[in-house]
Inverse folding.
């Protein structure tokens, strides 16, 4: 992605729209990166911490800042990322959080985990916290800079695994049926020969 192409996007909404495929793939990966059997497709505290470590962000943010971001960004009553507007969500206060700062009411939020909207909101907050001194960048540009510099190069993404149902779909079974004879011949050849025998056959073919 060319920085000049995306650095002047005018709103958070357009940034998240432009990078939806990459960000949603990253989000889905981290939903199950730590506790795959937890039965929810949302990012919890452990998954959020792993994301920060993978992107080399955890060592650049104070623990109190990380805790405050996680607590304040998750389980909010709004999920539309356009509400990241500074007027409705004060993202600048996270640059100077200290251990004594309130991180939100546990009673109010309980054990709610991060939705995709919460995750996007947290990225905007992290960008502002890390690059507060970059007065040459606006709040939206700081987010783009974070994504291109820290997140996309280092974050892990979801690996799509074909399900048994998709493998048994009509187009796939038709393809296998069409090439059944050749596929069986390949299978039988490798089943009946050791690797050394295959190498010897190839050498004899070459002469």
């Amino acid at each position: 992605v060319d920085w000049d192409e995306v650095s002047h996007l005018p709103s958070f909404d357009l940034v998240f729209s432009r990078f939806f495929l990459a960000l949603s793939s990253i989000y889905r990966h981290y939903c199950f990166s730590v506790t795959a059997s937890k039965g929810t497709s949302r990012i919890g505290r452990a998954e959020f911490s792993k994301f920060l470590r993978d992107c080399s962000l955890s060592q650049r943010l104070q623990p109190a800042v990380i805790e405050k971001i996680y607590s304040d960004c998750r389980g909010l009553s709004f999920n539309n990322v356009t509400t990241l507007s500074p007027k409705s969500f004060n993202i600048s206060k996270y640059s100077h959080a200290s251990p004594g700062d309130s991180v939100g009411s546990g009673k109010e939020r309980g054990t709610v985990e991060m939705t995709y909207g919460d995750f996007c909101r947290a990225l905007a907050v992290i960008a502002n916290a890390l690059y507060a001194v970059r007065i040459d960048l606006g709040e939206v540009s700081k987010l783009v800079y974070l994504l291109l510099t820290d997140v996309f190069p280092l974050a892990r993404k979801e690996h799509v695994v074909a399900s048994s149902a998709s493998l048994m779909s009509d187009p796939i079974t038709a393809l296998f049926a069409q090439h059944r004879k050749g596929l069986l011949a390949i299978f039988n050849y490798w089943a009946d020969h050791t690797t050394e025998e295959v190498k010897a056959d190839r050498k004899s073919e070459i002469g």
Summary: DSSP finds twelve helices and no strands in the chain.
